[in-house]
């Protein structure tokens, strides 16, 4: 998305290509306002050392602060600190949430020997249910759909008993899901689904 | 305007007639875009639109956001487009102290422009856009625009010591007025770096 290259055939493309920070998505010179300064710096140093040298060199920093009065500098510093703390807190919260959220793969008996498999809780990992459902359908060559749960929220229902394969597939395809967070449940016949 | 994060909505393909009229509107609003319009909006391209909250529409081409428009108001360039074609839009510049406020969505106030680090159009600049001279306006080495900008005009906001633009908005006070008064709001409800529109996924 950040790329602005175009497959242009016309005479000569005038478009400039701007590099955006991989951490905060802003142009690197604005990273200091993004709240994740430290990470942005590391990223830039690794990926665009030349740019890093230009933006974060001592001279550049001095020039940047010289223009402000001492008072304003202090205020800006305090502001930046607050912002960083906030960003960090949000990140920690997010990580915490990730660690706690569990994906439940439920095998539901539909009819003696027929099963459907329901996957609950994928959205906590920032996955788009609709897309995942499509992928699952392709992978297992069965029907796969996003269904609303009575208790609110949505789950993916895949036709057939694919719980074990599904478990492996999820682990393989989405690396940021820890194995311990996937739970396999067997649901007996005609039991109302209770949300996990 | 886009302080909150926006969830992506489904995109609709635009009719080619709508696309044509949009192109015309763009050229009227941004005459400086004329040399680049074919690169921004190739004739054969199929432009898509996305509905955003508050009656905003975002125009997307090949998953790259190009313009947004509130209601039937002025068509405004998305910042990514501004970064690609900075020459195509009139600019003003704010001083360093104002950057952090603008980047958190505050209304841009006059002192941020009138101070030493800020840049308003040059002194004695032509007060109006002259017929037939649309392509003559430009920014000088100092970062000052060559004519006074009027109230209601879309403007790109640059920042002291930075190369890229940091916000886009509509002037609520003409630059001549800003110079004379030296206080009060200048750009309200801007689209700035890191806001909801910037972070919106258009895949």
Automatic annotation (TrEMBL), chain A:
It is found in: Cytoplasm. Belongs to the DENR family. Keywords: Cytoplasm, Ribonucleoprotein, Ribosomal protein. Residues 103-174 form the SUI1 domain. SUPFAM superfamilies: eIF1-like (SSF55159). It comes from the Eukaryota. This is Translation machinery-associated protein 22. Its main location: cytoplasm. Pfam families: DENR_N, SUI1. The SUI1 domain may be involved in RNA binding. Gene3D superfamilies: SUI1-like domain. It comes from Bionectria ochroleuca (Gliocladium roseum). The lineage of its organism: Eukaryota, Fungi, Dikarya, Ascomycota, Pezizomycotina. InterPro entries: DENR/SUI1_TIF (IPR050318), DENR_C (IPR046447), DENR_eukaryotes (IPR005873), DENR_N (IPR048517), SUI1 (IPR001950), SUI1_dom_sf (IPR036877). Interacts with the 40S ribosomal subunit.
Automatic annotation (TrEMBL), chain B:
Gene3D superfamilies: 3.10.400.20. Belongs to the TMA20 family. Its main location: cytoplasm. This is Translation machinery-associated protein 20. Coiled coil: none annotated. It comes from Bionectria ochroleuca. Keywords: Cytoplasm. It is found in: Cytoplasm. InterPro entries: MCT-1/Tma20 (IPR016437), Pre-PUA (IPR041366), PUA-like_sf (IPR015947), Uncharacterised_CHP00451 (IPR004521). Residues 2-86 form the Pre-PUA domain. Pfam families: Pre-PUA (PF17832). Involved in translation. It comes from the Eukaryota.
């Amino acid at each position: 998305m950040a790329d602005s290259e175009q497959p242009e055939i016309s005479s000569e493309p005038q478009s400039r290509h701007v590099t955006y920070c991989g951490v905060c998505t802003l142009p690197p010179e604005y990273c200091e306002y993004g709240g994740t300064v430290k990470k942005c710096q590391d990223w830039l140093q690794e990926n665009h050392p030349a740019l890093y040298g230009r933006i974060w060199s001592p001279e550049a920093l001095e020039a940047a602060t010289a223009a402000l009065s001492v008072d304003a500098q202090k205020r800006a510093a305090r502001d930046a600190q607050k912002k960083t703390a906030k960003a960090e807190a949000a990140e920690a919260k997010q990580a915490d949430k990730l660690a706690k959220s569990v994906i439940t793969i439920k095998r539901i008996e539909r009819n003696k020997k027929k099963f459907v498999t329901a996957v609950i809780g994928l959205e906590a990992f920032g996955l788009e249910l609709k897309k995942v459902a499509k992928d699952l359908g392709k992978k297992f060559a069965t029907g796969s759909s996003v269904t609303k749960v009575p208790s609110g929220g949505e789950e993916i229902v895949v036709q057939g008993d694919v719980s074990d394969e599904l478990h492996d597939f999820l682990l393989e395809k989405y690396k940021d899901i820890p194995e311990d967070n996937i739970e396999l449940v067997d649901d007996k016949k005609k039991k109302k689904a209770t949300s996990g | 305007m886009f302080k909150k994060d926006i969830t992506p909505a489904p995109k609709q393909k635009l009719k080619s007639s709508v696309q044509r009229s949009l192109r015309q509107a763009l050229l009227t609003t941004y005459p400086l875009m004329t040399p680049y319009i074919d690169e921004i909006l190739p004739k054969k391209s199929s432009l898509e639109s996305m509905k955003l909250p508050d009656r905003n529409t975002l125009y997307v081409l090949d998953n790259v956001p190009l313009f947004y428009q509130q209601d039937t108001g002025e068509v405004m360039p998305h910042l990514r487009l501004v970064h690609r074609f900075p020459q195509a839009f009139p600019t003003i510049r704010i001083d360093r102290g104002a950057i952090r406020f603008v980047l958190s969505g505050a209304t841009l106030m006059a002192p941020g422009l009138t101070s030493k680090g800020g840049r308003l159009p040059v002194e004695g600049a032509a007060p109006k856009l002259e017929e037939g001279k649309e392509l003559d306006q430009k920014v000088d080495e100092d970062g000052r625009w060559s004519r006074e900008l009027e109230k209601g005009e879309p403007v790109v906001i640059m920042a002291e010591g930075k190369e890229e633009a940091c916000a886009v908005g509509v002037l609520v006070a003409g630059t001549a007025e800003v110079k004379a008064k030296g206080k009060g709001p200048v750009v309200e409800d801007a689209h700035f770096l890191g806001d909801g529109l910037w972070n919106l996924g258009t895949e």
